[in-house]
Amino acid sequence: MGGVRVLLIEDDHTIAEPLVEGLGHFGLTVQHVSTGAEGLRGPYGDVVLLDLGLPDIDGIDVCRGIRGVSEVPIIILSARGEEADRVLGLELGADDYLAKPFSMRELVARVRAVTRRSQRVSGGGEFVTSDAYPTYAAQPVVPANVYPSTPDPVYSQAVPPSQPPAATGPLVVDRRTRQVWVGEEPVVLTPKEFDLLALLTEDPGAVYSRQQILDRVWDPHYQGPTKTLDVHVATLRRKLGNPAWIQTLRGVGFRLAVQTQPQAPDPAPTPAYDWTAAR
Description:
Elements: E1 5-9, H1 13-25, E2 29-33, H2 36-41, E3 47-51, H3 59-69, E4 74-78, H4 83-91, E5 96-99, H5 104-118, E6 172-174, E7 179-182, E8 185-187, H6 191-201, E9 208-209, H7 210-218, H8 227-240, E10 246-249, E11 253-256, H9 275-278
Parallel strand pairs: 1-2, 1-3, 3-4, 4-5
Antiparallel strand pairs: 6-7, 7-8, 9-11, 10-11
């Protein structure tokens, strides 16, 4: 855990101070801010611990704002234990949710899990650090219940290129660039949505159990609400535009019911010149 940088967004100093001290004992470097506006400015470090009950901006809006510009792992820490709040936070891109009160050991375990997952990049084997992402400039935040139908530019995700690689197909999932197309139309997904779709496309038609998906896309030790999987599946179906592409097998799991466009193979290496034969 050495070297992990934490941004703690928590307005209650009676909670924040023990957290800063306790996480420091485990070797984490903690930057503490007490408002949503300060949290949105960043830098986000390697993981964000986010309270929902902030004095200036609702934590759900902060979660959405951070996720719009960065894939840094977000763990929500909140006294709001209702399932609707948990699911909404996870749907907006949070990676985990801890209801207060919680133990320091459990929090450290969750931080360890999400930072480990954030270092996995499908197919490339490279590590991505939060320094690769821009920090958020302070901007007015629209309240959660009055978002316009068109996403605010501050929160917009990067739009994939307008054309899929090589030949087109009904569904193209490019693991190298983490981009998705339906036909020739790009589809913007959250990191979790992409990871879920990428898993299902590993073996189209094969059934993945709920536990397999949670283990692979979330974490083998994930203890959050399992309903988040249903939320992500529902969102994927809506974004892909064809609900029948992801089928539910009641009591078993999910499978992909569309053949994805295969990736173009890497060009064959040029054979080495045989100097002995040339003599």
